[in-house]
Amino acid sequence: MAYDKFNILKSSAVPMPIENVDTDQIIPARFLKATERKGFGDNLFRDWRYNADDTPKKDFVLNNPIYSGKILVAGKNFGSGSSREHAAWAIYDYGFRCVVSSFFADIFKGNSLNIGILPVTVSAEFLDKIFKAIEADPKTELEVNLPAQTITILATGEKESFDINGYKKNNLMNGYDDIDFLQSLKDDIQKVAASSIY
Amino acid sequence: MPSTLFDKVWDSHVVRHIADGPDVFFIDRHFIHEVTSPVAFLGLEQRGLKVMFPERTFATADHNTPTINQHLPVQDPLSANQLKALEQNAAKYGISHWGLGNPKNGIVHVVGPENGITLPGMTIVCGDSHTSTHGAFGCIAFGIGTSEVEMVLSSQCIMQPKPKKMRINVNGKLGKGILPKDVVLYIISKLTAAGATGYFVEYAGEVFENMSMEGRMTVCNMSIEMGARGGMIAPDETTFAYIKGKDKAPKGEAWDKALAYWKTLKTDADAKFDVEYNFEAKDIEPMITYGTNPGMGTGITQHIPVTTETGNSKASYEKSLNYMGFHEDDVLLGKKVDYVFIGSCTNGRIEDFRAFASIVKGRKKADNVTAWIVPGSHIVEQQIKDEGILDILTEAGFELRQPGCSACLAMNDDKIPAGKYAVSTSNRNFEGRQGPGARTMLASPLVAAAAAVTGVVTDPRELIA
Ligand code: SF4
After folding, report:
1. Nearest-by-Cβ selection for A179 from B150, B432, B437
2. Cα distances (Å, whole numbers) of residue A151 to A10, A111, A123, A127, B310
3. What is the pTM of this model?
4. Which atom of ligand 1 lies nearest, measured to the CA of B408?
5. Which atom of ligand 1 sits closest to the CA of residue B427?
6. How far is ligand 1, taken at its centre, from the CA of residue B408, in Å?
7. How many domains, chain B?
8. Does one domain contain both B302 and B240?
9. Sign of the CA dihedral B109, A105, A8, A37?
10. What is the ipTM score, two decimals?
């Protein structure tokens, strides 16, 4: 599925200073029954966001109108657990384009990159600075610069660089995906298949 | 240069290495189920692509299936729709499909091995993170997202950076009543839920050498719970004996050829790992989790650690204990249990039910406990009947359900109610994993059985003759 190209993103951010946010929290299994990729944003963080009677939980950050933006900032080990890509779909569908944390679970990170969300890994110290900046001013903006691989707290000018492999970076900046690329390698793939004992 | 088992399997499956990027990685076997595949098939259709090697993909319905009355139409229209989509997609693209009611049906990570689809040295993926189970056969096996399911369908490859290598050695002999589940919960409690992120694990040492294939599957299954991409164990005589005669296993000359290859699948003596851990079997007791990630586990006779011992932030740790209704320094022994779940791809194999029955035999189910006993597959269900385990269960007041993922992820009706305590042999104790508000304590089949007959958290060693 096509996604928006990623270049430089300037936005306020939603803070979620919780550690080990697993994919069952991002989207509980009972919302995985669709056969199309539609509407997952409505159930993002469902059980943290809504009471059992579907009324919003007032103290949850997504229900607090002070916070908004295309960047989600989360505590360490974000996205652990299930491989459900639905978690990344829900985040994208809700309107986030970038998740910042000091540590990501592997599968979540890969899924995000595959669907056009940029996971930005920062140091624990820098993450703390971002949380403090948002606490001081909920409208404070971050700049995520993919070409330069930097993230900046615009109010203070504090900046950190982040890693991403060149191949994925190029994909994100151009809206490419792996499926097309793999189609171009079919001859090589046939050779490996033929040489396998299985 | 000496190389590891992991290197041998990985390197032989690289189609192309991309500079400053991932490897194009060839997949021998691909499992699909009803939940994470429909959108991938939709993608294929939109792009006008075909399935490149339909014979390398196997479909089974498990995540979203009822565990009672499977002969009746599925009640939930959304679940029924997913099951139908899987059936139709499999038929359209010529993929083998073991749907509801098929005698081969069951949880994907149970049916692959028990039918000889999973063989040593394979690369195996599935849109389910516990695909790591198949590592028990010396496979590189891991979970993927739906975009990657579409990649495998259309090109039999995914794009993967090669993980780093970790070896975990457990030496010595396990004590009475200590099961493979305890071994892996112990390891995860030591490494934490993120301790192996970025790594692929090889399990080695006496404990794994002496372990059955069922036990090895339990261990490899949980690798993802410490963040690892997967875990593997070198194939040996135990592996070969398990595979021999399985439905889709090689036969005759093909067997001899395969066996010769399988015997090369081990880590060379001087091969290097990026990191290595050593544990002693004698330090492991029956384990149980007290928090909301699988790293929050402890020996059943121990106290819940205080925050400062755990390396968690105070806020996150407190949130977790609050959810569970526990406190720092509490003892879990004697806590009331409302539900017991035995099943899942972690502990839904015949050995697990044998262990469960060993404690239940001659005792009665506790009145305050609701027990869900769910075989991993129809083949396991049949074994339970053939071995007389069903009689023991019935005698003790338990009922056997039909195979499926069930309360492992509570996508069907098998949900633990809010606030209730469940001792569960599955793999995740996340908030709401077994139903909104459900409180999960992960443990072995013996600990589950001890809770089921006493109604409280009990050290199973006290019930073993
Ligand atoms: S039993 Fe649980 S972990 Fe295993 S395949 Fe099913 S849902 Fe996934």
Report:
1. B150
2. 10, 21, 11, 11, 31
3. 0.95
4. 2
5. 3
6. 6
7. 3
8. no
9. positive
10. 0.92
